[in-house]
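ASSEMBLY PREDICTION REQUEST
Request ID: AP-0331
Submitted by: J.K., bench scientist
Number of chains: two
Total residues: 844
Priority: normal
Notes: Please return the full assembly, not individual chains.
Input sequences:
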Amino acid sequence: MAVLFYWPLINVFALALGPDIAGMVNNEASVWPVLWFTVWQAFVSTVICLILGIPGAYVLYRKSFRGAALLKTIITVPFMLPSLVVAIAVTEVAALIGGLNPVVAIILANVFANYAVVVRNIGSQWQTLSKSTDEESEISGAGRFSTALRVSLPQLKSSIRSSSAIILLYCASSYGIVLSLGGGQINTLETAISISVLERLDFAHGALLALLQITFCLVAFAISRWGGTNPLSFTPTSSGSKSLDKRDLPAAVFSFAVIAVLIVLPIVLVLSKAFISSSGTFTLENFALLDTRGSRDLLNITFLEAGLNSLRNLLVATVVSTLLGVLVAYLLAEHSRKRRRAKTDFLGITLDAAFLLPIGVSSVAIGVGYLITLTGDLAFLRTSWLLVPLVQSVFAIPLVVRIVYPSLLAVETITREQAMTDGANGLQLFWNVDYALLRPVMSTAIAFSALVSLGEFGVASLLTFGDQATIPVLMYQLISRPGAQNYAMALAVAAILTLITALVVFLVSEEGTKKLRSR
Amino acid sequence: MKRIFALITVALSLGLTACTNNEPAGVTLVAHDSFVMSDDLIAEFEASAGFKLTIVRAGDVGEMTGKLVLTKDAPIADVAYGIDNTSASVVEGNNVIASNSELVPIDFADICFNVDINYFKSKNLVIPDHWKDLIKPEYKNLTVIENPNTSSTGLGFLVSTFAAFPDDTATSNWWSSLKANGVKVAATWEDAYYTDFSGSAGKGKYPIVLSYSSSPADEVDEQGNAKTVALRKDCFRQIEYAAVLRNAKQAKAAQALVEFMQEQIFQSALPGSMYVYPFDENVYLPESWALRAPFAISTIGGDLAIAKNRTAWLTEYNRVFDVAP
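STATUS: Completed
Returned structure:
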């Protein structure tokens, strides 16, 4: 972790804070407008997510009804989709309604992808709030809406804060979305970083932008951690929720409409367009094109070859991130068991933060860190294929830790103590007790780190050259070049990735797990 | 720490690639996305040189140049084609080319505006005489150009605007007027020409596009009449080069490829495959080109210190257009 993450990061800081900084900061045109747009679009997207998502959190988590679990799963799909697939989905929506302003398109993509964060995160907390306060408030004559506004929302402060911070963070690091929907005209810090570095070869300027990007994300990240809630929890604890009734109708209708238009429509458009020919009949033509290199042989390799690259990267990234992630989670859990009584545990907090940080740092900034770091004798590593999966695993480790750590903590101390009394050593303890109890969580962790690697675009676009391109890199080449054949191919891949993502999300969701078990 | 990192990575990559390194001798060419070489020509080169040719496309010229510099110590190819006179300085300043090689001119193209003749006829509008006229009110919302930050076509035109006016203030003012006159900025030439331009395949909304003097050669209707025409005054002449890269694995074959590109057989295929003029003046141009795709009447900007001013010009453009890369 120190080598793969912090070393490039420190190099970025060192270069950005070099002697040229004063001149570059003064050169307003090159820094402030991008910073402003990055922050602005992130805030607007976050506010819209909150407005649309809070009723959804209420309906899906505070209330219960048939199909609620399925809806929870459906809204999670966009969150896990590769950013370029999100961009294609929004492009399809734009085509349907006759064009969208690029800024609006970017914000729509952000909301589409992050709606689930609000619903799941705030919903999980809402579920645990005492129902008697609501009832009292209603007895005193307040409606559901004013109860939610005056009684519930103030109690939900911590999850509102943490989910807002997480969305800010994701919206400020949505490189693929801005790159493909902004069309080179609209830049956030990340796209500006890649232009500075890849085209202008101005590393110092790129590093300065990366520093701003990292700082913004760290602030958002710190805020999200502050409340102590787990912003990336995928398995909320459910308790008895009241069923929907007539007085919830406005909230329910609103939320179902939002989910239908915001979440389901774009996904359906991508899937249907991929399978329907221009004459309106069902076809697999678009998928047959995947064996070609696009119109005018634009691509250097076919999607099948890129698929193999992606698969290879995925395997390396998943193995590395799962091993390291579980190890870190295990150490953290051990540590916290020993320190349970201590009030302030600086080491624990530091360890926790050190391994979670990559979630909050833009992959483009880290990619730049690698390009700066790998010079001189190490320059040949820039073209080594292994670099990409290793960096991707750094981004997946925090996810693994977040998923595994709470379950490890939940392993009953008494079970472990019994095992120890029976003479189990450390390894046996881990394998027979911890691992056995972890197995279901592990599949979630593996599935999500695989998805991270599969959809990762920032690092791959900066660090893959020639025949090492991955699926998202090829997709970007296709959608950034006109031509019906190119777009048809990109759509077909988007459809495949959507199906894979949906399948994975469904399988690891509560409902999927239940179905599997009952078989 | 550098050493540990290197060791880990080397060990892993050796272990994983050890069994796949038995490929036949081949030479790799890196080129921009618009590069086209027919299968016949590839076969011709492979037969005469005895090397298999692999072509890697690396984005637009700017993107390709960046990749060449970033990978110069372990290059992704042996030969680069498509470095042009707006990007040559970057390549030369970064020690990318083999010490016994140089940038060899292969072809050139004149960056000129094209107009959709049918649109102008149907609206009874006079075709502008010079690109400076595009700020006139009658051409409001009709023009699409390429972003000079992301497109070499856009960059070449940006250079010519700094050559066409008495001073830089006048140039900036012209750009402000162009923006005010509703110019659309596309990211790449392909976006502008194939998607936004009304006179080509995409049938877009804009009847004036920043393209090349040679583009009209391909835009002919069923009766054989020209559908588009180029504004050929004060264009920018973009010269494209090929060079052997430093640290090329197949230096000899690389040299042979650069020489092949200068031969008659490759040069005479250039108009048909890439819509550019062969650099060799003795090479015959297709007949239709004399009619529809003649050179620019005048070119400007080629004598400016492009390397020195590139960043300043782009910054000025970005100030006017309020984009900040």
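REVIEWER COMMENTS: Residues 12 and 426 of chain A are 40 Å apart (CA to CA).
SIGN-OFF: pending second reviewer
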